[in-house]
Specification:
The structure holds 2 protein chains of 2 kinds.
Chain A (H helix, E strand, L loop, with lengths): L2 H13 L2 H39 L4 E6 L18 H8 L4 E15 L4 E9 L4 H4 L3 E4 L4 H5 L4 E5 H8 L8 E4 L2 E9 L6 H6 L3 E5 H7 L7 E6 L5 H16 L5 E3 H48 L1 H9 L4 H38 L7 H27 L3 H6 L2
Parallel strand pairs in A: 3-8, 5-7
Antiparallel strand pairs in A: 1-9, 1-10, 2-3, 2-6, 2-9, 4-7, 5-8, 6-7
Chain B lengths: L1 E12 L2 E13 L4 E5 L6 H8 L7 E6 L2 E2 L5 H11 E4 L11 H11 L4 H14 L15 H12 L6 E5 L7 H16 L3 E6 L2 H4 L4 E6 L2 E7 L2
Parallel strand pairs in B: 3-8, 3-9, 6-7, 7-8
Antiparallel strand pairs in B: 1-2, 1-4, 4-5, 9-10
Classes of the chains: A alpha+beta, B alpha/beta.
Chain lengths: 402, 225
């Protein structure tokens, strides 16, 4: 009697008890589906966070920041509060460095004749990474000549433009910053989907770095953007520049490569999401085991119910092995079909979550294959005891059983 | 065909042992139609279980087709039941969740016969017992006599040498019972050895030879004229 026949027999036997088979399957189905969905959502969330971090980190730019500025609290002795011109020339002197720019960050208020809004000000060269992150949708970004000439121009984020001008056209209008009129030359798309915008807000005003220093002479320069030539070793160069700057500042921890800081965050995010996925996955695994216990329970009931059938089959020449296989295959059929349906349902949940929340989800193929195999193994393990019980029945007792 | 020598069957019953068969000597030759009669509790069912290789004697020898069955492993015994013995039970013992033709196919399934051949032979056998039109009926839709015919067709599936029938007419009315006995007689005439267990003298009278068993011992043996 071949295995195909066995499967056919198992199917028809499961079909005679449709509701019961389905309910038993449900335990496995829910367990597998939750594993698949949790891993998909976990992977998607992780990828979204890491992607956002990678976005901040351009390959041809080294962002150098004074270390302690990232830590809250009062200034400490030896702390660099602002990057100065000597620091710039040190960085510029390295071979492989094409250009050194700086970016200033701050918060202030901006007003028109009728309205006022709080803004995050970001000032720098026109062609740096931060500005490249934002797509100008109206007007244009300020250019290098604007930076050189200390021109009083500004680019607003869409949400800020909407706050200040409503539906009106902001291009060419004037906004007041620090008592000085700036001409609006462009509007850039606010990056709502960017995870950082969740923390930093989306009301931004961009202006040339030189203009910003004129307006806010007290603001420290908090970031040095070192652009490197193609082919230069970014990480090595970053290390050497930071070391040179630290020697100049007389403090071994004065500056740091902020991409290192971001890499640290990325590492932490990765660790946390991995641990979370494992913990929740383990809970889902327990759910799967509970489903397996349900399978075992139903198989035991089935063996008892079908005792006479087993006796008849034995009298017709079924070996103990054939009876054992029959019940094993039945329980495996339940769990593997449950597993397959669970993979489909779990993937569906993942897709639904990504549609609803906008965070992408990734169904993991290795995990899918693994949970399929695992559900088959659960079928064998949980079917073994009942099947063995069936195979060990005494044919005469089984025949007499009513 | 089969030979029992000094077959004893004991069961442990708490601290006591219950001796059901007390030294049975019996030979059944090829082509015979033997009936075994006895009151309930006489041990005739146990005897049939031993003859059908469902149970092993506690002592004594059972030779089936020239082979000492005590030397056979459980899978070998299962194979022998499958290939050489057909059972007919009082309560038919059809599998309720299979239609008639699949019930008849079952021994062939365990015998390793392919699907197509299995189906055509099962239909042919159902035709032989007069149930061709009922082949795809469920057991619950068949009358007692029809169920017993299906069971006989199933017993014949692998062309067994011996058919063992345990009160085959016990659950049937007289007329249907007679029809079943006629069917068994036809099979016997065609060469199948049949042993039938009954307490009904009319049924036993159909056999060539009737063995009376009382309290685990053969007390009488009557050859038909």
């Amino acid at each position: 009697m071949n295995v195909l026949e066995m499967f056919r027999m198992a199917f028809s036997s499961l079909l005679t008890n449709k509701l019961r088979s389905f309910l038993t399957m449900l335990g496995i189905l829910i367990g597998v589906a939750s594993i698949i969905a949790i891993v998909a959502i976990g992977n998607g969330g992780k990828a979204a966070v890491l992607g956002a971090i990678a976005n901040q980190n351009l390959q041809d730019t080294i962002e150098i920041i004074p270390s302690e500025l990232v830590a809250p609290g009062l200034p400490q002795p030896g702390q660099v509060l602002s990057i100065d011109d000597e620091d710039f020339s040190i960085a510029q002197s390295f071979q492989g460095v094409s250009q050194v720019n700086y970016t200033i960050y701050g918060t202030s208020t901006v007003s028109t004749s009728s309205r006022t809004a709080n803004v995050s000000i970001e000032a720098g060269p026109s062609d740096l990474d931060d500005l490249a992150r934002f797509t100008v949708i109206e007007g244009h970004m300020f250019q290098t000549p604007d930076v050189i000439a200390h021109r009083k121009v500004a680019v607003l984020s869409t949400s800020l433009a909407a706050k200040l001008f409503g539906n009106g056209n902001p291009i060419g209008a004037t906004v007041m910053v620090q008592g000085t009129p700036l001409q609006v030359i462009g509007v850039a798309q606010s990056q709502e989907a960017n995870l950082f915008s969740l923390f930093l807000g989306s009301d931004y005003l961009y202006m040339p770095a030189t203009t910003c220093r004129d307006l806010y002479p007290n603001w420290g320069i908090s970031e040095m953007d070192v652009q490197i030539e193609p082919g230069a070793n970014r990480d090595q160069l970053a290390k050497r520049i930071v070391t040179a700057l630290n020697i100049h500042a007389g403090n071994a921890g004065a500056f740091e490569d902020s991409s290192g800081f971001l890499a640290g965050i990325a590492g932490t995010v990765q660790k946390v999401t991995t641990i979370l996925t494992i913990v929740i996955g383990a809970i889902a695994g327990i759910a799967l085991l509970v489903g397996g216990v349900g399978v075992m329970n139903i198989m035991l009931v089935s063996v008892t119910e079908r005792t006479q059938e087993i006796g008849i089959r034995m009298s017709l020449g079924a070996t103990r092995g054939a009876i054992l296989l029959q019940f094993l295959i039945e329980s495996m059929t339940i769990t593997t079909i449950g597993g397959l349906a669970g993979i489909l349902l779990g993937s569906g949940v993942g897709v639904a979550v990504s549609v609803v929340t906008g965070v992408p989800t990734y169904v993991s193929w290795p995990i899918s294959v693994l949970s399929f195999l695992f559900s088959a193994v659960i079928g064998v393990i949980c079917g073994l005891y009942p099947a063995n019980k069936a195979a060990r029945l005494d044919p005469i007792d089984a025949l007499r059983y009513e | 065909m089969i030979e029992l020598r000094q077959v004893v069957k004991r069961y442990a019953n708490g601290a006591d042992t219950l001796t059901v068969l007390k030294g049975i000597d019996l030979r059944i030759e090829d082509g015979e139609f033997v009936s075994i009669m006895g009151p309930s509790g006489s041990g005739k069912s146990t005897l049939m279980h031993i003859m059908g290789l469902l149970d092993a004697p506690s002592s004594g020898t059972y030779v089936f087709d020239g082979q000492d069955t005590s030397a056979l492993s459980k899978p070998q015994l299962a194979r022998m039941r499958n290939q050489s013995i057909g059972f007919v039970f009082q309560n038919f013992h059809l599998l309720p969740r299979m239609n008639a033709v699949r019930n008849v196919e079952l021994p062939m399934l365990y015998g390793g016969i392919g699907r197509g051949e299995r189906r055509s032979r099962a239909l042919e056998l159902l035709g032989q017992v007069g149930l061709h039109e009922r082949a795809f009926h469920w057991p619950s839709a068949l009358s007692g006599g029809q169920k017993q015919r299906v069971a006989i067709a199933r017993a014949l599936a692998n062309n067994p040498r011996l058919i063992l029938a345990d009160e085959p007419t016990g659950a049937l009315d007289q007329k249907t019972g007679r029809e079943i006995m006629e069917l068994l007689q036809r099979l016997n005439a065609a060469g199948t050895t049949i042993a039938i267990i009954t307490h009904d003298p009319n049924v036993a009278a159909v056999a060539n030879r009737t063995i009376h068993i009382v309290d685990g011992v053969i007390v009488d043996e009557v050859h038909a004229p």
